[in-house]
Amino acid sequence: MKISNRLTTRLTIAAACGALALTSMMGGSTTFAAPAAVKAEPVSPGGPAMVRRLTPSQYQQIISDVFGPDIKLGGRFEPDVRKDGLLAVGTSGISVSISGLAQYDTMARTIASQVVDEQHRAALIPCKPANTRQPDEACARQFLEKAGRMLYRRPLTQQELQLRVAAAGEAATTLKNFYSGLSLSLAGMLSSSQFLFRHEMSEADPENPGMRRLDSYSKAQRLSFFLWNTAPDSALLAAAESGEIQTKKGLEKQVTRMLASPRLEDGVRAFFTDMLEFDRFANFAKDPQIYPKFTGAAADDAQEQTLRTIVDQVLTQNGDYRDLFTTRKTFLTPLLGSLYSVPVAKVTANGAPDQWTPYEYPEGDPRGVGILTQASFVALHSHPGRSSPTVRGKAVREVLLCQRVPDPPGNVAFNVVQDTADPVYKTARARLKAHATEAMCTGCHKITDPIGLAMENFDSAAGFRTRENGETIDTTGDLNGKKYNDAIGLGQAIHDDPATASCLVNKLFAYASGRTATRAEREWMAFMVKGFADGGYRIPSLMRQISTSDAFYRVKDQAEETKAADASAAEKK
Amino acid sequence: MSATSRLASRRRVLKGMLGGSAVTLGLPFLDGFLNENGTALAASGQALPACFGTWFQGLGLNPGYWEPKKVGADYEVTHQLKPLAKFRDKINVYSGMRVFLDGHAPKVHATGAIAVMGGGIPEEPNAFPSVDSLVADHIGTRTRFRSLEVSCSGSRESYSRRSRSAINPTEPDPVAMYTRIFGPDFQDPNAAEFTPDPAIMARKSVLSAFKEERQGLLKELGSSDKARIDEYFTALRELEGKLELELQKPAPMAACTKAEGIDTIPRGLVVDDCVKNAKLFSKLVAHALACGQSRVVNMVFCGAGGDIRRAASPVTFHIHTHEEPVDPAVGYQPNVDWFMETCLTSLAGYLGDLAAIKEGDKTLLDRIVIMFGTDTGFAKFHSLENIPMFTFGGSSIIKTGLHVPCNGDTTSRVGLTVQQALGVPTSNWGTESNRTAKTITEVMI
Q1: Which residues contact B64 (CB under 8 A, 6 or more apart)?
Q2: Which of A78, A83, A84, A95 to substitute to test the interface with B, most B CBs within 10 Å?
Q3: What is the least distance, in Å, from the CA of A197 to any CA of chain B?
Q4: Gap between the terminal Cα atoms of chain B
Q5: pLDDT at B188 over 70
Q6: N or C: more exposed end of chain A, with fewer CB within 10 A?
Q7: pTM of the shown model
Q8: Spans of all domains in chain A
């Protein structure tokens, strides 16, 4: 099957299954609808057209989409950089190092050689060369044009295509093999800046004279990576090609289609994987001698548990985002069951083996506080061998509420807080209380510790406990004035805190656009936050709101800005 | 399956380098390539190339226990320098140096590390190129790898930056590093025959075609994005240059032997694993340098904030520095001291591997100068004063075996000194109060 057909077919089937699944899961309701009454949104100045490096998961997904999931990458990615709480924002500030490009080059050649090998060529290359030992310009052109459109997220220009075809021909002559030449040209494309970076281009906005907007391919690209965490599919590229995506109706049609696709789950997973900092699990381990149950497999399951809980709550149930901090429903594997001391059956009711079992904690069980007391949160935000109320409190503030906690000052004595064998201060609360009496520490600990102490029933590996060193753990505290007795109360306080929803909106916008909102966009952001609340705090509805907004695609004219800055500098001189 | 067992069960790629077998280090070099002094390539008359390295270990050293009292040569081996005693004459100690904050809010551990390696405190993290990048731009352009970065503690933490947008990530896996250096693309510089590989010719030709896209891409970009895309094209030119080198017969390197024989071993923050990985990397790096594959190597034993720990212990090196009381009997924190000693013992092993490669009457250690990097002068309080600074080796490049007090001076002086000693055309280095034009003249040849 040809690439475009293969991809289109795969997506069509997938979309059909997804639509059915979503409909049934939501009790026959239609897929994620826009809020009923929408006031005119405030005008936003927009931001720059962005240049963002593909994330490893995007790279992987694109290769899988275009060439099939059995293609192996065979290499290692350059690490991403987290900025303003998100790797997605970091992608707008990073380039490719020399050793990083060497790695991309290795991966590109590994992928390209599989695409042209005897196992795959019949399915992926739409033609056969007249002679396999010689160049075949027509066949190379046919393949590179189709592959290039998907990889570059736009059609190749004639000049680009000619260059790729010529490169394939030259290499085929040198190596006396058509497929080797084609493979090298494809590898070059996979190592090129046009593939590795998402280059956005702008154009004058005819509907808003004096303003600029993303051009249609850049718009399709931003939309697709936002909702699906991958490159646009054929249908979206076609909408870009025809200009349909630049019309309100055309955009809404695409957004509706994409929100109904099961690929939305990939997008939601990618966003929360980033927001909840799961990348840190890559260099994360608990000491097996202290926490024998917290193995690498348990860490993998912990992330999956949280993502399943999220997908179930915000997509399957189309529920309130804030309920993620109160829900008693989750999914467990036997491994996680052992970690949390919850019995989990190894097979489902009908006898089929299933690692994942839906589970609902009984009411009042402090282990059932949504994603907050899951291992992916309490274990990740701990020291390797001990819990840390401060680290956990800081994580709640920064990750979930978007509130920055300052770094500790220099010259701090930590003796008391970290000595778990202290005969006087037996619990973390007692140790922190003693430590926080130091004036320079009090301010910050007041905003972190009452949150983290409510999670002290969970040790560093998420195991449940009620005592520490023989002393009963006191889990009372308060969040911004709202008092609680335990993690359940903390979860409710986070659920009710206005910062929880506004943080999500801000992070989702930053994730989608590759930058944090500016001061000039505050009014528009406030409108989005209100829309989120009015829509019942439903994430798909928020995604629709953002992705159908003009402001999301509006571009500031950087050339004009540069000129203005230059003029201002000249004036100062 | 645990992370450890997953790693251990990976395909066995190499064998035998651990356990002291070191089968390749003792192979004879070819005297015929050296001049009478054993320091130059006989064929070309050129000196063996100077190399640069950094060794980073987080959390500094115990103040008062690493600085010698005696100034100049023949300084006494202090308590903390004991693991390095046999290399004393190859080590310069620079005491009393500090990082100036200039009103910047300190980010514990990160600020010191960036300032030591990058010469200042940037407004945004990683905004400056690090000293090794500046040196590599000068001496590393004609080798297969402009620089090599390795991490002994399993992470990809790196202090090597070309700019804010291009961090040179470390390689935590010795087997992957081996494959990168001595895998199929390695060409033995001492091989009698050389045939250019047509596949490399074809690859180079394809990559060259992509360079032409640069101008078109830069048109609509703001200045910071332009810089990032330019970084990409710099990397592309490097890659092309690397292929070009692979098409030429490499210059003979008398002491070059291909490393062989290691097993994949567990990686991670348990200190025993770090030590084992450091041993593998040390030998690998020594071979890579001896074979002229690179001239700049950055090795991270443990990162700033050092989260390494003993097996089965919940207390990391970092936590020990803050919580462990000073033992009045000895005057320092014993557990902290143990971690520091362990790091320095691994460093001594690295120096030993470099010194084991004989090049005439000198060794590889004589033509590489290694700068010590850390993040604090006293980890207990995150102090940025009296930060331990050293250079190791490089007796063909600088004077060695000296203790130079630099009381109150910025740590950038060491970075500036090594740059100038290696021929980087710069008269000063650093930013704000960490900027300096004062070379450490005592060690300059």
Answers
A1: B331, B332
A2: A95
A3: 9
A4: 56
A5: yes
A6: C
A7: 0.81
A8: 53-197, 268-496
